[in-house]
Automatic annotation (TrEMBL):
Name this protein carries in UniProt: Uridylate kinase
Entry-linked NCBIfam families: pyrH_arch
Domain of life, per lineage: Archaea
Signal sequence range: none
Family statement: Belongs to the UMP kinase family.
Primary location group: cytoplasm
Residues the entry annotates as binding ATP: 45, 49, 140, 146, 149
Organism of derivation: Thermoproteota archaeon
Pfam family, one: AA_kinase
InterPro entries: AceGlu_kinase-like_sf (IPR036393), Asp/Glu/Uridylate_kinase (IPR001048), Uridylate_kinase (IPR011817), Uridylate_kinase_arch/spir (IPR011818)
Subcellular location: Cytoplasm
Length: 225
C-alpha cells in the first residue's frame, strides 16, 4: 500500500520537542516494516503561526508571510527526516523538480510547504496524486470530521463517512460564518476528488491510530472521492 501522511504541525510542534518527532518517526518506520510505502507532509504548527504573526505586525505582505510559514514547515520536515535516519530521503524537496529526484531514491520523502497560497494539506494531496497513492491519512487533534467544531459545540456530531462533494459543501457552509469551523482545505479536496484517492481524518495524538487505519480498522472519518 502507498500511503501519504499529512502530519499536523500543531500535533508535532505545539512547541519544539524531540519526543513527539521521535514518536512519529517510529510510527513511519513501523509502517515501512510492514511492507508499505510511506511518505509524509508536515505542517508549520504554532511556530509558523508565531513567525507569521510577527511578520504581519512588521507590515510584511501576505505572500511573504506564506513563504515564512513554508520555511518553518520545511524545518519541521527536516527534523522528521533526521529522526527517520536512512529510511528517509536526506533533503526536504523545495519544488516539484526536487520532489521527482527524491522519489527516485525509493526512500520515504518528507515535505513541508512548496509554494505561497498552497496549504500543506494541498501538498499532501498533490503528492498522493503523483504517487497514485492508495490512501491519504490526515492527522488532527480530534477524532475526525464533525458537523461543527467539537471543541466549542456540545451538539457537534462526528461524521463516520462523507463524500468529497458533501464535505466541500460543509466546508463552504462553515467558511461563510464569521470565525467558522476550519474543516478542510478546498484545494486539497479538489485534488483528492480528481485523483480519486480515498482519505481518512484521524486523531493523531495517538500514533497507534495510524496503524489502525493501515490494518483496515474503521476509525476517524473516511472521505470518499
Amino acid at each position: 500500500m502507498k500511503v501519504v501522511l499529512k502530519l499536523s504541525g500543531h500535533l508535532l510542534f505545539p512547541y519544539i520537542t524531540h519526543e513527539k518527532i521521535t514518536e512519529y518517526a517510529e510510527a513511519m518506520k513501523k509502517i515501512l516494516s510492514l511492507g508499505h510505502e510511506a511518505h509524509a507532509v508536515v505542517g508549520g504548527g504554532i511556530p509558523a503561526r508565531q513567525y507569521i504573526e510577527a511578520a504581519r505586525k512588521l507590515g510584511v505582505d501576505e505572500a511573504s508571510c506564506d513563504k515564512i510559514g513554508i520555511l518553518i514547515s520545511q524545518i519541521n520536515a527536516m527534523l522528521l527526516i533526521k529522526a527517520l535516519g536512512d529510511k528517509a530521503y536526506h533533503r526536504v524537496p523545495q519544488n516539484f523538480e526536487e520532489l521527482e529526484e527524491a522519489l527516485a531514491s525509493k526512500k520515504s520523502v518528507i515535505l513541508g510547504g512548496l509554494q505561497p497560497g498552497q496549504s500543506t494539506s494541498a501538498v499532501a494531496a498533490l503528492l498522493a496524486e503523483r504517487l497514485k497513492a492508495d490512501l491519504i491519512i490526515f492527522t488532527t487533534d480530534v477524532d475526525g470530521v464533525y458537523t461543527e467544531d467539537p471543541k466549542i459545540s456540545p451538539g457537534a456530531r462526528k461524521i463516520d463517512e462523507i463524500s468529497v462533494r458533501e464535505l466541500k459543501r460543509l466546508v463552504l457552509l462553515h467558511e461563510a460564518k464569521a470565525g467558522g469551523y476550519k474543516l478542510m482545505d478546498l484545494v486539497a479536496l479538489s485534488i483528492i476528488e480528481r485523483a480519486k484517492i480515498p482519505a481518512v481524518v484521524i486523531n493523531g495524538t495517538q500514533t497507534e491510530n495510524i496503524f489502525k487505519v493501515i490494518t483496515g480498522e474503521k476509525i476517524g472519518t473516511k472521505i470518499t472521492p
